[in-house]
Write a structure and sequence with these properties.
The chain has 341 residues and is mostly beta strands. The protein has three domains: 72 residues, Immunoglobulin-like; 99 residues, Sandwich (Immunoglobulin-like); 78 residues, Immunoglobulins (Immunoglobulin-like, Sandwich), CATH 2.60.40. The chain is built from one helix and 22 strands. A four-stranded antiparallel sheet has the order 4-3-6-7, with no helix packed on it. Strand 3 and strand 4 form a beta hairpin. The longest helix is centred in the last third of the chain and has 29 residues. The protein is elongated, with a radius of gyration of 36 Å.
Protein backbone atom coordinates (compact mmCIF):
# COMPACT_ATOMS: atom_id res chain seq x y z
CA UNK A 1 0.00 0.00 0.00
CA UNK A 2 1.60 3.19 -1.17
CA UNK A 3 1.48 6.20 1.13
CA UNK A 4 3.05 9.49 0.07
CA UNK A 5 3.78 12.28 2.56
CA UNK A 6 5.69 15.30 1.35
CA UNK A 7 6.56 18.22 3.64
CA UNK A 8 7.51 21.48 1.98
CA UNK A 9 8.38 24.88 3.42
CA UNK A 10 6.69 27.76 1.59
CA UNK A 11 8.80 30.81 0.92
CA UNK A 12 6.50 32.79 -1.39
CA UNK A 13 2.83 33.43 -2.01
CA UNK A 14 2.57 30.38 -4.27
CA UNK A 15 5.05 28.17 -2.42
CA UNK A 16 7.89 26.02 -3.71
CA UNK A 17 7.16 22.68 -5.38
CA UNK A 18 7.84 19.51 -3.44
CA UNK A 19 11.40 18.27 -3.74
CA UNK A 20 10.14 14.72 -4.24
CA UNK A 21 7.07 13.62 -6.18
CA UNK A 22 5.87 10.30 -7.50
CA UNK A 23 6.16 10.47 -11.28
CA UNK A 24 2.80 8.75 -11.61
CA UNK A 25 0.99 10.83 -8.99
CA UNK A 26 -2.30 12.33 -10.25
CA UNK A 27 -1.70 15.39 -8.06
CA UNK A 28 1.48 17.46 -8.18
CA UNK A 29 2.79 20.84 -7.06
CA UNK A 30 0.68 21.10 -3.91
CA UNK A 31 0.84 24.72 -2.69
CA UNK A 32 -0.85 27.46 -0.68
CA UNK A 33 -2.15 30.63 -2.33
CA UNK A 34 -2.39 33.03 0.66
CA UNK A 35 -4.21 35.89 -1.06
CA UNK A 36 -6.98 33.59 -2.32
CA UNK A 37 -6.83 31.52 0.92
CA UNK A 38 -6.59 28.31 -1.08
CA UNK A 39 -4.79 25.00 -0.99
CA UNK A 40 -4.31 24.18 -4.67
CA UNK A 41 -2.45 21.73 -6.92
CA UNK A 42 -1.89 20.59 -10.50
CA UNK A 43 -4.25 17.78 -11.46
CA UNK A 44 -3.18 15.10 -13.95
CA UNK A 45 -5.93 12.72 -15.00
CA UNK A 46 -9.23 11.90 -13.37
CA UNK A 47 -9.48 11.38 -9.63
CA UNK A 48 -12.31 10.81 -7.19
CA UNK A 49 -13.42 13.40 -4.70
CA UNK A 50 -10.55 15.19 -2.90
CA UNK A 51 -10.72 15.99 0.81
CA UNK A 52 -8.61 18.63 2.56
CA UNK A 53 -7.30 18.48 6.12
CA UNK A 54 -5.52 20.79 8.56
CA UNK A 55 -3.46 19.00 11.21
CA UNK A 56 -5.23 15.75 10.22
CA UNK A 57 -8.69 17.27 10.84
CA UNK A 58 -11.10 17.24 7.90
CA UNK A 59 -12.01 20.79 6.90
CA UNK A 60 -13.60 20.80 3.45
CA UNK A 61 -13.85 19.14 0.03
CA UNK A 62 -12.23 20.34 -3.18
CA UNK A 63 -14.24 22.58 -5.51
CA UNK A 64 -14.07 23.73 -9.14
CA UNK A 65 -13.68 20.20 -10.55
CA UNK A 66 -11.24 19.10 -7.85
CA UNK A 67 -8.87 22.02 -8.50
CA UNK A 68 -8.49 23.48 -5.00
CA UNK A 69 -9.83 23.72 -1.45
CA UNK A 70 -11.12 27.09 -0.28
CA UNK A 71 -10.56 28.16 3.33
CA UNK A 72 -12.20 30.97 5.23
CA UNK A 73 -8.93 31.90 6.91
CA UNK A 74 -5.30 30.77 6.85
CA UNK A 75 -2.90 30.83 9.79
CA UNK A 76 -0.51 33.77 9.90
CA UNK A 77 1.84 32.47 12.59
CA UNK A 78 1.38 28.92 13.82
CA UNK A 79 2.80 26.33 11.42
CA UNK A 80 0.14 23.79 10.42
CA UNK A 81 0.06 20.69 8.24
CA UNK A 82 -2.21 20.99 5.19
CA UNK A 83 -2.96 17.69 3.48
CA UNK A 84 -5.21 16.13 0.86
CA UNK A 85 -6.49 12.60 0.27
CA UNK A 86 -8.77 10.81 -2.18
CA UNK A 87 -12.11 9.26 -1.26
CA UNK A 88 -11.65 6.35 -3.71
CA UNK A 89 -8.84 4.41 -5.30
CA UNK A 90 -5.45 3.52 -3.84
CA UNK A 91 -4.56 5.17 -0.52
CA UNK A 92 -3.13 8.60 -1.24
CA UNK A 93 -1.96 11.40 1.03
CA UNK A 94 0.04 14.50 0.20
CA UNK A 95 0.82 17.45 2.43
CA UNK A 96 2.72 20.66 3.03
CA UNK A 97 3.39 22.95 5.96
CA UNK A 98 2.27 26.58 6.13
CA UNK A 99 3.36 29.24 7.01
CA UNK A 100 7.15 29.23 6.86
CA UNK A 101 8.72 28.21 10.17
CA UNK A 102 11.06 30.99 11.35
CA UNK A 103 12.67 31.80 14.68
CA UNK A 104 12.31 30.06 18.02
CA UNK A 105 8.63 29.25 18.67
CA UNK A 106 9.32 29.17 22.43
CA UNK A 107 10.07 32.91 22.27
CA UNK A 108 6.65 33.73 20.82
CA UNK A 109 3.80 35.01 23.00
CA UNK A 110 1.94 32.07 24.51
CA UNK A 111 -1.55 31.53 25.88
CA UNK A 112 -3.17 34.18 23.67
CA UNK A 113 -6.75 34.57 24.87
CA UNK A 114 -9.46 37.12 24.00
CA UNK A 115 -12.83 37.96 25.55
CA UNK A 116 -15.62 40.44 24.80
CA UNK A 117 -16.96 41.78 28.10
CA UNK A 118 -18.93 44.68 29.57
CA UNK A 119 -20.86 44.90 26.27
CA UNK A 120 -18.34 47.12 24.45
CA UNK A 121 -14.83 45.93 25.37
CA UNK A 122 -12.55 43.35 23.72
CA UNK A 123 -9.59 42.37 25.91
CA UNK A 124 -6.75 40.10 24.79
CA UNK A 125 -4.00 38.80 27.07
CA UNK A 126 -0.91 36.63 26.64
CA UNK A 127 2.19 35.44 28.48
CA UNK A 128 5.84 36.07 27.67
CA UNK A 129 7.42 33.15 25.79
CA UNK A 130 9.42 30.68 27.90
CA UNK A 131 12.61 31.30 25.90
CA UNK A 132 12.01 34.94 25.01
CA UNK A 133 15.12 37.21 24.98
CA UNK A 134 15.45 39.71 27.81
CA UNK A 135 14.70 42.65 25.50
CA UNK A 136 11.53 41.07 24.08
CA UNK A 137 8.50 43.28 23.54
CA UNK A 138 5.12 42.33 22.12
CA UNK A 139 2.44 44.21 20.18
CA UNK A 140 -1.08 43.10 19.33
CA UNK A 141 -2.94 43.63 16.05
CA UNK A 142 -6.27 42.65 14.58
CA UNK A 143 -6.35 41.63 10.94
CA UNK A 144 -9.12 41.83 8.35
CA UNK A 145 -9.64 38.34 6.95
CA UNK A 146 -10.34 39.49 3.41
CA UNK A 147 -7.63 42.12 2.90
CA UNK A 148 -5.17 40.91 5.61
CA UNK A 149 -4.75 44.56 6.61
CA UNK A 150 -3.59 44.96 10.22
CA UNK A 151 -4.52 47.50 12.91
CA UNK A 152 -2.67 47.81 16.20
CA UNK A 153 -4.44 47.69 19.56
CA UNK A 154 -4.37 51.14 21.25
CA UNK A 155 -4.62 50.38 24.98
CA UNK A 156 -1.81 48.21 26.42
CA UNK A 157 -1.07 47.01 29.93
CA UNK A 158 2.37 45.97 31.23
CA UNK A 159 3.52 43.31 33.64
CA UNK A 160 5.99 44.17 36.47
CA UNK A 161 8.92 43.63 34.07
CA UNK A 162 7.63 46.22 31.63
CA UNK A 163 6.46 43.68 29.05
CA UNK A 164 3.19 44.34 27.23
CA UNK A 165 0.89 41.43 28.12
CA UNK A 166 -2.66 42.77 27.70
CA UNK A 167 -4.58 45.14 25.44
CA UNK A 168 -8.13 46.53 25.15
CA UNK A 169 -10.34 47.65 22.29
CA UNK A 170 -13.02 49.91 23.78
CA UNK A 171 -15.65 49.84 21.01
CA UNK A 172 -16.20 46.36 19.59
CA UNK A 173 -19.13 47.59 17.50
CA UNK A 174 -16.54 49.06 15.11
CA UNK A 175 -14.72 45.74 14.63
CA UNK A 176 -15.60 42.99 12.13
CA UNK A 177 -17.53 40.17 13.74
CA UNK A 178 -14.95 37.66 12.51
CA UNK A 179 -11.26 38.58 12.62
CA UNK A 180 -7.75 37.37 13.28
CA UNK A 181 -5.75 38.45 16.34
CA UNK A 182 -1.94 38.50 16.12
CA UNK A 183 0.77 39.16 18.70
CA UNK A 184 4.13 40.04 17.15
CA UNK A 185 7.34 40.00 19.16
CA UNK A 186 10.44 42.12 18.57
CA UNK A 187 14.00 41.76 19.84
CA UNK A 188 17.43 43.09 18.86
CA UNK A 189 18.99 39.66 19.31
CA UNK A 190 16.58 37.21 17.65
CA UNK A 191 13.74 36.76 15.17
CA UNK A 192 10.52 36.21 17.12
CA UNK A 193 7.66 34.21 15.58
CA UNK A 194 4.19 35.70 15.93
CA UNK A 195 1.18 34.12 17.65
CA UNK A 196 -2.32 34.21 16.20
CA UNK A 197 -5.90 33.30 16.91
CA UNK A 198 -8.98 33.53 14.69
CA UNK A 199 -12.03 34.64 16.64
CA UNK A 200 -15.73 35.21 16.12
CA UNK A 201 -16.66 37.94 18.57
CA UNK A 202 -20.09 36.51 19.34
CA UNK A 203 -18.47 33.24 20.46
CA UNK A 204 -16.01 34.83 22.90
CA UNK A 205 -18.48 37.24 24.48
CA UNK A 206 -19.16 37.02 28.20
CA UNK A 207 -22.48 38.74 28.91
CA UNK A 208 -23.06 41.00 31.87
CA UNK A 209 -25.60 39.65 34.37
CA UNK A 210 -28.99 41.19 33.50
CA UNK A 211 -30.54 43.62 35.99
CA UNK A 212 -33.93 42.56 37.33
CA UNK A 213 -36.72 45.08 37.81
CA UNK A 214 -39.89 43.96 39.58
CA UNK A 215 -43.44 44.87 40.55
CA UNK A 216 -44.64 43.12 43.68
CA UNK A 217 -47.74 42.81 45.88
CA UNK A 218 -49.64 40.12 47.80
CA UNK A 219 -51.12 38.68 44.62
CA UNK A 220 -48.16 38.50 42.25
CA UNK A 221 -44.48 39.21 41.60
CA UNK A 222 -43.65 40.31 38.05
CA UNK A 223 -39.95 40.38 37.13
CA UNK A 224 -38.42 41.77 33.93
CA UNK A 225 -34.85 42.06 32.61
CA UNK A 226 -32.79 42.83 29.51
CA UNK A 227 -29.52 41.32 28.21
CA UNK A 228 -27.23 43.60 26.16
CA UNK A 229 -24.98 42.52 23.27
CA UNK A 230 -23.69 43.84 19.94
CA UNK A 231 -23.57 40.31 18.50
CA UNK A 232 -26.32 38.20 20.04
CA UNK A 233 -30.02 39.06 19.90
CA UNK A 234 -31.44 35.81 21.23
CA UNK A 235 -30.68 34.65 24.75
CA UNK A 236 -31.25 31.92 27.29
CA UNK A 237 -31.69 32.66 30.98
CA UNK A 238 -31.44 30.79 34.23
CA UNK A 239 -33.50 32.32 37.03
CA UNK A 240 -32.74 31.00 40.50
CA UNK A 241 -35.49 31.50 43.09
CA UNK A 242 -35.71 30.83 46.80
CA UNK A 243 -38.94 31.29 48.76
CA UNK A 244 -38.28 31.96 52.42
CA UNK A 245 -36.20 29.12 53.88
CA UNK A 246 -37.21 26.63 51.15
CA UNK A 247 -34.46 25.13 48.93
CA UNK A 248 -33.58 27.26 45.88
CA UNK A 249 -34.70 26.08 42.44
CA UNK A 250 -33.89 27.19 38.89
CA UNK A 251 -36.15 28.06 35.97
CA UNK A 252 -34.72 27.89 32.41
CA UNK A 253 -36.25 30.64 30.27
CA UNK A 254 -36.07 32.33 26.89
CA UNK A 255 -38.54 35.08 27.80
CA UNK A 256 -37.44 38.37 29.37
CA UNK A 257 -39.97 38.16 32.19
CA UNK A 258 -41.31 35.80 34.85
CA UNK A 259 -44.40 35.98 37.07
CA UNK A 260 -45.11 34.38 40.44
CA UNK A 261 -48.54 34.22 42.08
CA UNK A 262 -49.05 34.67 45.83
CA UNK A 263 -45.29 35.20 46.16
CA UNK A 264 -44.78 36.37 49.76
CA UNK A 265 -40.96 36.64 50.22
CA UNK A 266 -38.47 35.63 47.51
CA UNK A 267 -34.72 35.94 46.85
CA UNK A 268 -33.80 35.72 43.16
CA UNK A 269 -30.75 35.95 40.92
CA UNK A 270 -30.26 35.61 37.17
CA UNK A 271 -27.66 34.75 34.54
CA UNK A 272 -27.71 34.75 30.73
CA UNK A 273 -25.97 33.45 27.61
CA UNK A 274 -26.36 33.74 23.86
CA UNK A 275 -28.84 31.16 22.57
CA UNK A 276 -26.27 29.20 20.55
CA UNK A 277 -23.34 29.84 22.90
CA UNK A 278 -21.84 27.87 25.76
CA UNK A 279 -20.53 30.48 28.19
CA UNK A 280 -22.88 31.82 30.86
CA UNK A 281 -22.59 35.25 32.44
CA UNK A 282 -21.90 35.56 36.13
CA UNK A 283 -24.94 35.36 38.40
CA UNK A 284 -26.53 38.70 39.20
CA UNK A 285 -26.41 39.85 42.81
CA UNK A 286 -29.22 38.27 44.88
CA UNK A 287 -32.31 40.49 45.10
CA UNK A 288 -34.93 40.19 47.84
CA UNK A 289 -38.63 40.89 47.29
CA UNK A 290 -41.05 41.12 50.24
CA UNK A 291 -44.45 40.87 48.64
CA UNK A 292 -46.70 40.18 51.65
CA UNK A 293 -46.68 43.75 53.03
CA UNK A 294 -49.38 46.43 52.67
CA UNK A 295 -52.31 46.40 50.30
CA UNK A 296 -52.66 44.19 47.27
CA UNK A 297 -51.77 47.05 44.97
CA UNK A 298 -49.39 49.36 46.80
CA UNK A 299 -48.38 52.48 44.94
CA UNK A 300 -45.84 55.19 45.69
CA UNK A 301 -47.10 58.34 47.48
CA UNK A 302 -46.44 60.55 44.46
CA UNK A 303 -48.51 58.24 42.27
CA UNK A 304 -51.38 58.26 44.79
CA UNK A 305 -51.27 62.07 44.97
CA UNK A 306 -51.28 62.28 41.18
CA UNK A 307 -54.29 59.97 40.99
CA UNK A 308 -56.18 62.08 43.57
CA UNK A 309 -55.40 65.26 41.63
CA UNK A 310 -56.49 63.65 38.38
CA UNK A 311 -59.76 62.48 39.95
CA UNK A 312 -60.39 65.98 41.34
CA UNK A 313 -59.83 67.56 37.93
CA UNK A 314 -62.15 65.05 36.30
CA UNK A 315 -64.92 65.76 38.84
CA UNK A 316 -64.43 69.53 38.43
CA UNK A 317 -64.57 69.18 34.66
CA UNK A 318 -67.73 67.14 34.92
CA UNK A 319 -69.38 69.76 37.16
CA UNK A 320 -68.46 72.56 34.75
CA UNK A 321 -69.82 70.57 31.84
CA UNK A 322 -73.11 69.91 33.65
CA UNK A 323 -73.49 73.57 34.62
CA UNK A 324 -72.94 74.59 31.03
CA UNK A 325 -75.56 72.13 29.88
CA UNK A 326 -78.12 73.47 32.41
CA UNK A 327 -77.41 77.04 31.38
CA UNK A 328 -78.04 76.21 27.75
CA UNK A 329 -81.45 74.72 28.62
CA UNK A 330 -82.75 77.81 30.53
CA UNK A 331 -85.27 80.04 28.60
CA UNK A 332 -83.54 82.88 26.84
CA UNK A 333 -86.58 85.40 26.62
CA UNK A 334 -87.00 87.98 29.42
CA UNK A 335 -89.68 87.52 32.12
CA UNK A 336 -93.01 89.42 31.59
CA UNK A 337 -93.55 92.41 33.85
CA UNK A 338 -96.65 92.59 36.02
CA UNK A 339 -99.18 95.15 34.86
CA UNK A 340 -99.48 98.19 37.13
CA UNK A 341 -102.88 98.89 38.60
Amino acid sequence: MALLWLAVLLTSASGLPQSQEDHYSPIKNLRIEPVERRLTWDLHGNVSEIMCFINSKFITKAVNHNRYCQFHVLPSCEVKNFSISLTKGPPFLMGIQYPLHEGNPEAAARGLDCRVHDVDVLTCSWDVGREAPRDIQYHLYWQELRTRREYECPNYEMDPRGKLVRCHFNDVSRLPKHLQILVRGTSQSAWIPCSDRTVELSEIEILNPPNITATCNKSYLMMEWEACSHFNNRFEYELQLQKGSDPAYTEKLQEKFFELHNPKNYVVRLRAKGFYRKSWSEWSAPQSFECDLGEDSPRPDWLLAALVLLATLLVLGLVIALCGSVAENLPSHPAHERPHH
